[in-house]
Amino acid sequence: MPKKIDPQLRARCVRLVREHQQEYPTLTAATHAVARQEGVSRESVRRWLAQV
After folding, report:
1. Among 1, 37, 46, 47, which lies 20 to 30 A Cα-Cα from 31?
2. Which among 19, 23, 20, 43 is positioned nearest to 32, based on CA atoms?
């Protein structure tokens, strides 16, 4: 069973990627950096962005 992610963490990850995207060469690089920083998987952050 997948673990539940705090909605605030999810929103923070999406916000951070959007705010700092221009600092990275690609969206994927920004996604990986935020995922590493927040301690979640890169795939989770990628899916959250796609859902928003």
Report:
1. 1
2. 43
CA pair distance 46, 48, nearest whole angstrom: 6
The model's pTM is 0.88
9: left (phi over 0), alpha (psi -120 to 50) or beta: alpha
pLDDT digits (tens, 9 = 90+) for 7-52: 999 999 999 999 999 999 999 999 999 999 999 999 999 999 999 9
The count of C-alpha atoms lying within 13 angstroms of the C-alpha of 48, restricted to the half-sphere facing its C-beta, is: 24
Amino acid at 35: A
